[in-house]
């Protein structure tokens, strides 16, 4: 009994000693809370969810809170108001804010996707589809001034189609609700993100006939940004956040669709694993994700070209003000 008591006391003293060392010596670093507001919760952003599920943000010392903003305009509002630390959206929102004269504007520091993530869905399968078939048709589109709609119109113009005169584009339906509307409307086509495009196919209510990501070519579709004041005050957080996203990109670019789907499934509990795998494979096949997060000037110039063609850009804005690549360059090393 004495031996047992002595052992217990020794163990207790050792534990107390370790606790004391932890508090008086080098305490465990606390995680820094960061609120990320995303434009939509979509499998299209798989690298981000892989980073979350694999613990890459925690590895970088970040306690991440993810909020679904439901549109770039709402994400930017949250960013400007201070409800979000970092915004994830189409970079056109940062251009609009800057062009409107904001002093504490949003600066893009990491690009995630390099192709559009939506698909054109028709009522019936059409293996011989070409864009000329949209002439005279009705399409459920996106919000005016948003990347989904502007990229759609960009493709139409590339194919000699006038978005205003050659077809009817319904832009009255809220983001994320077009798939449901398509099932009960008289529209011939709808432009859909995943998982809605695949869901329409599985239900037999629609069929993917074209990928906007493939037909538009490489475009800087979504990127991370923060207010200039936040970046100046917390450069270490921006760097750690970028590091975590780079790890997520490395993961999706080096693993199979099946592996990625299993990793991010907790983010999409209502979507069957088989569907997630199909969607991830579709995005991998069209080279949706960059190899690094560097937002090159060539991409930014292309974005401004698209905005100009859409009539949404009164004057061009400087790349040097709205994009920084130092965090991305450091992360990829």
Secondary structure blueprint with pairings:
Layout: H1 2-24, E1 32-38, H2 46-53, H3 56-59, E2 62-68, H4 72-81, E3 86-89, H5 92-99, E4 106-113, E5 118-122, E6 138-140, H6 147-158, E7 168-170, H7 178-184, E8 189-193, H8 196-203, E9 207-211, H9 212-216, E10 222-227, H10 228-233, H11 235-252, H12 257-264, H13 273-285, H14 297-309, H15 319-322, H16 326-332
Parallel strand pairs: 1-2, 1-3, 6-7, 6-8
Antiparallel strand pairs: 3-10, 4-10, 5-8, 5-9
Helix pairs in contact: 2-11, 11-16, 12-13
Number of strands: 10
* CATH 4th-level superfamily of the largest domain: Periplasmic binding protein-like II
CATH topology of the largest domain: D-Maltodextrin-Binding Protein, domain 2
> Which stretches of 5+ consecutive residues score pLDDT under 50?
1-27
Largest sheet, in brief, is:
5 strands, mixed
What's the short version?
This protein is an alpha/beta fold and 333 residues long. The chain is built from 16 helices and 10 strands.
Q: Can you walk me through this structure?
A:
By secondary structure, the chain is of the alpha/beta class. It folds into two domains: 32-115 and 219-332, 3-Layer(aba) Sandwich (D-Maltodextrin-Binding Protein, domain 2); 120-216, D-Maltodextrin-Binding Protein, domain 2. 46% of the residues lie in helices and 16% in strands. The chain is built from 16 helices and ten strands. The strands form two sheets. It has a five-stranded mixed beta sheet with strand order 2-1-3-10-4, with helices on both faces. Strands 7-6-8-5-9 form a five-stranded mixed beta sheet. Helix 6 links the parallel strand 6 and strand 7 (168-170). Helix 11 (235-252) packs across helix 16. It is globular. It starts with a helix and ends with a helix. Mean pLDDT is 90; it is low at 1-27.
